[in-house]
């Protein structure tokens, strides 16, 4: 008599997508089926500006995701503010702003090139007038060494804290006894901007004025020039004037 022995029916619920390709498997519904799960090995993901899908399948545990700082070509020291570290990169950027205390209104602060600056500028717009706002009442003159045939700075430099138009006034005298000409002119930021004034009078001053447009931070100076072998330019009462209504009203 022949006895037939039946093999036990495989158990399990695996399907092809659960088993690595090209391995085979059996389950309660499949015998010696071939797996279809892809073997991705070690996947390396580099972040970028778009969403990236992680591939389905087997990963061996050695995959990596790159540092966002390393992946971004803009993550360099020069693009990061000094004092800040971004993904391990220490910033060196200090900015290229040009604001200063003289150009920021009093009572306000501003971040400038990595630091905080407190304003010192006074709000308002100057209008040329007759009210003296600053004055250098001393007397200054060129001599045989300075200001002969070339212009030479005389008196104080006035740096503006308000913008607008200011009246520049100076008294000029030719220091000679032979009626030789002497010159004076207003400079703004080191550049001649005023009318070239001249006089041949000695022993008395002639008053000259120029209305000059200024911005906060501009500086004004008066420069004089004498003539070789002849005169010296003498300046007195160098001052700036504006309309008094800028500063107050009278009632």
Question: What's the β-strand tally?
Answer: 18
Number of helices: 1
User: What's the architecture of the domain at 125-246, going by CATH?
Assistant: Sandwich
**End-to-end span in angstroms?**
137 Å
The radius of gyration is 42 Å
Under CATH at level 1, the class of the domain at 125-246 stands as Mainly Beta
- H/E element sequence: EEEEHEEEEEEEEEEEEEE
Helix content: under 10%
CATH superfamily of the domain at 125-246: Galactose-binding domain-like
Low-confidence stretches: none
How would you classify the helix and strand content by structural class? mainly beta
Short descriptors:
251 residues; mainly beta; Jelly Rolls; five-stranded mixed sheet; five-stranded antiparallel sheet; 1 helix
């Amino acid at each position: 008599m022949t006895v037939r022995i039946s093999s036990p029916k495989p158990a399990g619920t695996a399907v092809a997508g659960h088993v690595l390709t090209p391995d085979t498997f059996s389950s309660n519904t499949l015998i010696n089926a071939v797996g279809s799960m892809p073997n991705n090995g070690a996947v390396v993901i580099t972040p970028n500006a778009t969403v990236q899908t992680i591939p389905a399948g087997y990963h061996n545990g050695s995959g990596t995701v790159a540092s966002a700082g390393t992946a971004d070509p803009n993550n360099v020291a020069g693009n990061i503010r000094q004092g800040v570290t971004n993904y391990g990169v220490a910033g060196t950027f200090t900015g290229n702003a040009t604001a200063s205390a003289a150009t920021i209104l009093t009572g306000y602060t501003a971040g400038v090139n990595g630091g905080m600056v407190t304003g010192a500028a006074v709000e308002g717009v100057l209008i040329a007038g007759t009210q003296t706002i600053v004055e250098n009442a001393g007397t200054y003159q060129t001599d045989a060494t300075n200001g002969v045939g070339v212009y030479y700075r005389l008196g104080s430099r006035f740096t503006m804290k308000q913008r607008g138009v200011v009246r520049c006034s100076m008294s000029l005298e030719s220091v000679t006894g032979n009626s030789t000409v002497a010159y004076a002119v207003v400079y703004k930021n080191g550049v001649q901007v005023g009318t070239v004034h001249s006089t041949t009078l000695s022993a008395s001053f002639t008053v000259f004025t120029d209305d000059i447009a200024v911005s906060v931070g501009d500086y004004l100076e008066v420069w004089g020039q004498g003539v070789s072998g002849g005169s010296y330019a003498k300046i007195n009462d160098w001052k700036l004037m504006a309309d008094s209504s800028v500063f107050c009203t009278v009632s």
